[in-house]
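Why does residue order matter? Because the sequence determines the fold. Keep that principle in mind as you read this record.
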Amino acid sequence: ANNATEVRHQEKVVRPVGPGQSSRCPRHGTVAPCRPLQRSPEHLELRDTVHRKNDRATSNDLPIRTARFIERKSWVVCGSDDMVIRVYNYNTMDKVHSYEAHADYIRCIAVHPTQSFILTSSDDMMIKLWDWNKNWACTQTFEGHTHYVMQVVFNPKRYKHVR
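Structure:
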């Protein structure tokens, strides 16, 4: 770290919020409450390079933060801290597909109840819409959030089944 007051915590650089504050942050043990710094593109590029060296080790070493079943396809879709979405057949546990989905940790996945879409959200402050019928193409990106996007859902009222 460039500054003596900066601290590394699970690849996130943090520093005290303000000078002269003396309380300790319970998470980092630093003086004063902490806030995350923006990650530089160089940091993300370096982390991406390290993770790509050994995808097998990465997928086992980093936490899976979200997973959703897609029963109509017999799939489980997982998102993890290596920024990759992995799709497995839950009957055979064969990997169906994997792709780098975000520039930072993936926090949430939502599955559309009738269409071939999933939504993903991430610490990169974006929500993305993916279509598995189009070889998992990203069909829309929702930008403009000012902090991590921790949760996404599809609007259930819009997709009620007509009887």
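The helical segments are 41-53, 55-61.
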